Queue: 4 jobs
Job 1
Amino acid sequence: MVRARQAAVPRPEPVVLLDRISQLVTMAGGADARRGKAMREIGLIRDGAVLISGGQVVAVGSAREVAKSTWLRQHRREVIELDCRGKVVLPGFVDSHTHPVFAAPRLIDFEKRAAGASYEEIAAAGGGIRASIAGVRGTSEQKLSEQVTSALRQAQAQGTTTLEAKSGYGLDAASELKSLRAIRRAAAEWPGTVVATFLGAHVPPPEFKEDPDAYVELLCAEMLPKVVKGKLARYVDVFCERGAFTLQQTVRILREAVRLGLRTRVHVGQMTNTPLETILAEHPASVDHMDELRREDIAAVANSDTVATLLPGANYFLATKKYPPARKLIDAGAAVALATDYNPGTSPTISMPMVLSLACTQMKMTVEEALTAATINGACALELGGQKGSVEAGKDADLAFFELDDYRELAYWFGANHCAAVMMAGSFADLF
Ligand SMILES: [Zn+2]
């Protein structure tokens, strides 16, 4: 049977000119992660303009330069012009580490912590990650996807246009697959970009407490092939930590993931040190947390292609005295990214501006380094540096607009949201 093809109606793609932008932070510099001193180069243009067509950036420069472009002259009649005076515009934040699939906040843990209990004491008493498992197992895919949608809306309201989302509170095949389908369902309704990660290796679930190796085997033999078959995730993540998975188990899972065609990333060094060399030999896209590092770990990550993703929201919320050694990592030449680690137990924030504030006040990053870490380097942590993370011709038109005069205010005001709008693939989610 020959199916009648619908006549293609030629529809002119909207052409948008963002004009007279008070401060345009371009992050120009191509697809690769920025390291060392290059992390301070944010490609700032005062009185800037961006020309957008077909969801992509066509031209960037000063308002005067862009006004002269031949492309603009040829398309002048179709152009929608927006006056962006009084605004700081930057590439939409890339939040490369979140755990949005959970059923409820962990308020009892929060109270216990305020009363002085540590993360590991709370976990030992049945709280922590394990407390979220029952919630996810008992919640429908529809309900979980509504939770994820709510998280995406909150992220977008604060300037995030690309977000990595992990499963990891189901911890059996059915609940992990349900979590990943919930991510896929929410992502389909959001105009931004969601990158899904399978984190079945978050902690061994209670039913495998006595035999975590058996859980690793189940994960490799049953869960991973189903994730691949359903095309449910691009990445596989492992929490390599005391009380979660050993280095040997981590490597076993990473290798199986790669064998099945998936890419990898690892939670490592949050509470105890794990020698990084063994993990880096598996070429993960990113190693995340990195609070507990030895000097040789810093050198090893600096000499690798793997991005070091720092999550200071977790340090803040857990009130650890120690933050990841951002200065040492940047000065050694590591590609440093920042993300929220949005999750119900240790980092209940989805605000990238809050993370910028923490980076500058607690980890002594410069505002420029923090912005680089939250945009282009975050994109590189998701291996999307060619499409996201900077405002450059040929890249996706994902932008965030802030009612500010100076980009440094992004990291200066904390606990306030100055994001006026975001543009995702060339369209405004909300017009200002
Ligand atoms: Zn995490």
Job 2
Amino acid sequence: MPTDLITSDRFLLHETYGHPERPERLRAIQERLRQAKLLEGRAVLEPEPASVETLALIHDRAYIAEIEAFAHAGGGWLDPDTYVCRESYEVALLAVGAAVQAVDRVGDGQSRRVFALVRPPGHHAEPRRAMGFCLFNNIAVAAQYALVCRGLSRVAILDWDVHHGNGTQTAFYETDTVLFISLHQWPLYPGTGRGDEIGRGRGFGYTLNLPLRPGTGDEGYRELFDQVIGPRLAQYRPELLLVSAGFDAHRLDPLASMDVTEFGFAGMAVRAWPPEGDRRCAGRAGAAVAARVPRHGVRRRAQSARRKTGATGRSEVTPRGSTWRKYLEVTPMRRAVVLVAVLVLLAGLVPGSAAPAYPSKALEFIAPAGPGGGWDTTARMTAKALAEEKLITVPISVINMPGGSGAVGIAHMVTRRRGDTHVLAVMGSALTGTLARRAVPYTYRDVTPIVAITADYQVIAVRKDSTFNTLKTLLEVFKRDPGAITVGGGSAPGALDHLTFAQLAGLVGVDVTKVRYVPFGDGAAAMASILGGTTTVLSSSLSETLANIEAGQIRVLAVTAPQRLGGALRDIPTAREQGVDFVFANWRGFYMPPETPAEVVRFWEDTFAKMLGSRTWARILQETRWEPFVLTGDRLRQFLDRDLTTTQSVLRDLGLIR
Ligand SMILES: [Zn+2]
């Protein structure tokens, strides 16, 4: 599929009076594309202007209004580099619109790559300031649009313009949702982009600056792409790649001195979009390109976007070779810092992880459900055991994050907590159900599974004064008149509690679509409804119903364990002994965000091993009636894959998914 083009003659209306970034530049490129017959066989599209709302994804509204007013008043010089004419505001909206449109086309699968040839350029524009010929930051708006409006979670911006993309860096300096990589001559305008500018806060490690010596040339760029940029992109696995493809590193550029030939640029393009089959680009690919005119001479700037698919995994990347180092232009004092910074990035480390003390601050355990349910209890009991056994000495706070049977929790972990080493979330069968229903665009491969620790069995229960005394009598009535039975549960339709009863129905030969399942927000709400008499049957986990069982409020008709449980539960029959061969274990465990470093995973595997063998944990198992169910590493990952596949096939058989 060819690279499509977005451009417009309207970009010529942005007049700059003799400035190198002038209308003729765009005209020359358009003309050359036509002469070389490069426009044949590809879509050439007119852009639509971006709205102020879209611009406001990056830019301050007051600043946008200021540029509009300045242009409409006739314009003038904003600074010695940046000229604005009467039409400039509308033309600038069109440039941003072209970049956004490129993202949409790639996102919608209409194009695989898009080149947006636009004026004015954008990568120097800061959220509240125009500079370096740039009014609005086309590529930054496009990236933020992809994240906010199209729901992507990882966008990479590669800026190979010979100048540092200061505005783009500013926009994403504190986020891990955009990986910004810039190669630029050093020293040169605008003076930012030192190697030790590597991001801050959550964005630490997600800005990679490669300040280069003059004369780096084709070979130098190739080595940097092969040894540094390629591995970093492969590690990050962006869903979309945007390129600020300025061509001012070209050897004929009168002011920059990078000595790159057209073959060098071709090499960069090939490396940014490797052929199909390369593991960095499995799946669909696409690109957006925005032209940009830099400070002097022949300049083009392009942004390109490319969509990738593929699971995100924890990865450790080391540079392939070390010849790239000689191209970095740094003062002797800074050299060590830069090399450390780059190596830290390549090792996939995060702040704090290199420090000897881990955990270095309070930990968060996310229970992706309301208080009182199985996930909440798992988080709280684990926190308690870790503290009582002094395995963890920093505070652990349990955060309830209900919604979508774990969907809200995993989306939070993937999009907001990437690389955060101080947060763990509870997972389990219910989350498998959520993933199987594709309620979120993730699987277990998008996060870092740490451990499975327990299994809990399901119970089928009724109110104490119900006329149903056995599972058999319940199922007989259900077979005769499925509509007479309403089943309440704490999970979403198609999730665990529904699935339990649906599988039972299937086993006794009832059309599973006849199950009247009423989903409640959590197990406690489902329990309240059975006690209140608004539902007939409760499908829930044993641990969530234990207190009610002990208080004599409900009658458990069956437990899905392979054999009877002991102690106070010895009188509860299994489904199996009532002639329904049904065993269902609801397992639970913990996972961490994407990009959790290997040493942190090892820490938690060791710590959980100690906890699970402790006296405190033995007591908790006794109290909660959980059974030990312990898996880590490869065995855990294999189990999760299998659990997901099995659940999907059951749901498909039941007609709950396609
Ligand atoms: Zn430039």
Job 3
Amino acid sequence: MERYGGNTSCVQVISSNGTLVVIDCGTGAHDLGRTLLAEAKGPLKGNILISHTHWDHIQGFPFFTPLFVPGGNWDIYGPSGLGRSLRDTLSGQMEHTYFPVTLDQMGANIFFHDLVEGHFEIDDIHITARYLNHPTLTLGYKLEVGGASVIYACDHEPHSRQLGQDGPLHELDQLHCDFLSGADLVIHDAHFTDKEYVAHKGWGHSPVEYVCELGYRAGVKQLAFTHHDPLRTDQAIDQIVEAARSDLKAKASPMHVFAAAEGMAIDLNSPAFTITESHDGSHSATRTSPALYDPSVLIGISEPKWSQVLAEAARAEGIRTVHATNTASALQSAKSTPPGLILLEDQPKGIDGLAICRDLRSSRDPRLVDVPIVMVSDREKISEGIDAGVTRWLISPFSTQYAKAVIHACLLRSNLRWKRAALPPDEKERLSALGKLSLLDTAPEERFDRITRLAVAIGDVPIASVTLVDQNRQWFKSCVGLGNSENSRELSFCAHAILGRSPLIVPDTLRDDRFADNPLVTGDPRIRFYAGFPIVYNGGSCVGTLCLIDTRPRHFPASILQRFEDLASLVQQELNVSPKNGNP
Ligand SMILES: [Zn+2]
Ligand SMILES: [Zn+2]
């Protein structure tokens, strides 16, 4: 890319009053910093908005020279609440193994501000921060001065993850469309084309066609594609823009689309951009919720084993915790300093979480009416929970990893698309059957390995295993394509499969609310397709499965699925004649 340039994300916005905002600090920040200093010939006052802390958006930060000039003043804003604070992340990449100067040694006065969704002002610019759909916590920014607006939405991918844009949008895509509504200029991630996107769902980037459709529906005036695939040539980008333009022409859309290029400057200096208000401006009156926010979680739990795991999970998410060990102090703490999230227990002898929940929900403080409340318990009381205003239940036992996912989803106010399988009704008998098999933690055996090899060959899948579902884990008696021999039952797809006596087929995990956020889907081995065939021991309990896994979505015809079932029957036969169970 010679004309469009190969630097990573960095955009500069200047209001006609001279307020300087730099959005993202990718490698482009290096040249920008030098240009700014050359023009200013002295210390600078400016602001940096960070969308998220993926490397390509912050790697230019240590090379942004205005930060080294004594007397300079810089305010740096970015999302926080999950993971480390913005300051910690930025200083982390400047540790001495990577960089000769630490953040504390930078010469300018630097102030960090952690953001959540909401509104705030930087001098004459009114800013709206909005979460985008990206694997890490990411904010899009809308900058408004007078009547003009610029939106930076990078990195983001469609919520529906479906192609074809006829008909109404997915509810969350509609929200994103509303965010873009009427902007003079939208700078949007358009990393893929529709065709490429099919193989890259879940990567957090948008296809050009989706961005165009949204811009068109939102009545955007100018739309800039950015975050180009680094492997794309200038010519390929030109073709993409041409295709988008001819689509828009067919729809008689007046929206102007183009590909953002290195050094490109866009002047929005229309009459609408004339600044009419003063610094402390009229925007404060319309402020709905402040974006500057220090998230904390109130843990109102007396049961030590729960509060310990939850505190650990909150710490892993980088969130401050406040503890209360009885009903009165939990209630008082929530009211005096409303937290971003409340975790309570439902224990008659400990903390009466449901009573606290009812009390907070009837409060006049909107922060307490809206705050997500998670109720921790041994069992879910569905209707009482709804009456009291419980956001979600967290049923014991749970791991730190699962608690972390729940906290993450609640703070983002999104659904947790990871369901732990229920225990089968015959769990006790099932575990005793599994014990009688005496197969757990035994060495691999050819009689099973040949079956998993066949499964991989027939299905053309990278992974197949004979999985036994133990009390707290799943363990692989035979496995092709996975490095480990077991993982926790919470993560287990097979724990779902053993609930029914028929095969569990998940053609695309990202479209399945039980699995889309499962760490085995969002992380290694990135399961996209799963098929599990239950294995029943001696006509009684279901002890495990023969399962097949792929890293792409798959659809198999019935004839092939029948083969897999045949293989599962062979595994079942092997179990039932197992020399160790003494049952020929
Ligand atoms: Zn990213
Ligand atoms: Zn990126």
Job 4
Amino acid sequence: MRKKSFLSYEAKLIIAILAVLLLIFLPIPLYDNIIEIKNDLFLFYEKNISHYPIWLQILPFILILSLVIAIKLIKKNRSKYVEDNFYNIKWTWDWHKNDITNLQCYCPICDEPLYYDDTTSKFTIEVSKIDFICDKCQKVMGSIANENNKLNSSQLVKKEIQRQIYRKLTQDKNLTK
Ligand SMILES: [Zn+2]
């Protein structure tokens, strides 16, 4: 069940306008408050942080900064990795954040898009493999074994190639360590 909002938008708007008017016309010492907060922060620093050596004070900022840079670099590397060979077939894809999209397969010889054939599934309950065929070369260029017959062919292909891509990514990461 949807909860009813406590206040309607109109009521919130009126309260916001009233609050702004109060802030402007009531003699609230806003500036003094800011100075007080600043003094409090400074006191907190003096009391708790300033006795540590300066490199230890800066360390958290450097750690956060290097983490951000590392994440950016990994993302950049990942977005450059959009092509590879698996099962003797050339695969291309796009990155959408961490997801692989627009997965395509091409003939390693003539670069023609391949189509896949799983017609055996019509005659047997289990599909043992999916063949990738090049029309131009008139040849099966590669096959992917189908061990999971719960998935349909395109799901299985996508899952299998994604697995290969992620495996390669983690391998590369381990190599650069
Ligand atoms: Zn071909």
